[in-house]
Amino acid sequence: MDTTTRAAALHLTGERTVPGVPEENYWYRRHEAAYHAFLPYCSGAVVLEAGCGEGYGAGLIADHAAQVVALDYDHAAIGHVARSYPAAPAVQGNLATLPVADARLDVVANLQVLEHLWDQYGFLAECRRVLRPGGRLLLTTPNRLTFTPDSDTPLNPYHTRELSPSELDEMIREAGFTVEWLAGLHHGAGVRALDERYGGSIIDAQLDVVMGSLPGQAQWPEALLTDVAAIRAEDFDVHGHDLDASLDLVAVAVRP
C-alpha cells in the first residue's frame, strides 16, 4: 500500500500516527523510540499490544517476542495490521474488556493509548487481570506538563485525560502494580539541533504549518519537510532524569 492510500485508509486525522508519511515522521519516530526502549522486556515473551493502531509496533515486537497479538477497536486498523504485519496476529476488541483469560500474558504493551481512554483505571485493572504474576505492563503516554501545559483540558480532541509523572505513578500503583521503571522520552542531540534551527522548537515549527489547514492540504516548506523526514528513532533519548520536562512518559510496571 502506498503512503497516500495508507494515510487515507487509516484516517490520518491526528488520532494516530503511521510510518511512511514524511509529514508524520517526527511523531512516528518519537513513538518508535519508545518501542525500541521496551523491546528487551518482550524478548521470548507472550505479548498483547493493547491498542495497536497501524501495527508497526506489533511488527517490531514480533521480531523479539515468542508471540504477539495486536488488539485494536478499529476494524480498518485491524484489517491493515493483518495484511501488513502477518507475524502479529490481529484481533478486533475493546480495551475496556480485554478478550484474554486471566493470568495468560507475560507482557501487555500500551503505547500512546491511555490518554484516549475514558476509564483509565478500568483498563489498568484489565491489564493486571490478564498478566501472569511477575508479568509486565509497558506503557507510554504524553506528559501533561509539556504536552498541554497550564491546563487540565487536553488540546488534542482525541485525548480524554493526560497525566503528569506523579499522576501516572500514582495511578499505576493504585491499580495494583509495582512501578519498576518510570522514565521520560526527550529530544536527543539530533532533534535538539533542529530545535535550535527552528527558533527553539521543531514541534512548534510543524504546528505552525498545519494549524488552520485542512487535513492533507498544509503547504510545508521544503527545508522543514526534509528535516522532519530525516528524523530517526535514535534521535530521541529515554531516561529517568528530569521527568517533568519529558515529552512522553515511559513506564514499566510489574504485576505482583
From TrEMBL:
CDD domains: AdoMet_MTases (cd02440). Residues 48-138 form the Methyltransferase type domain. The keyword Methyltransferase applies. SUPFAM superfamilies: S-adenosyl-L-methionine-dependent methyltransferases. The keyword Transferase applies. It comes from the Bacteria. GO terms for biological process: methylation. Keywords: Methyltransferase, Transferase. GO terms for molecular function: methyltransferase activity. It holds the Pfam family Methyltransf_11. InterPro entries: Methyltransf_11, Methyltransf_Superfamily, SAM-dependent_MTases_sf. This is Class I SAM-dependent methyltransferase. It comes from Prauserella alba.
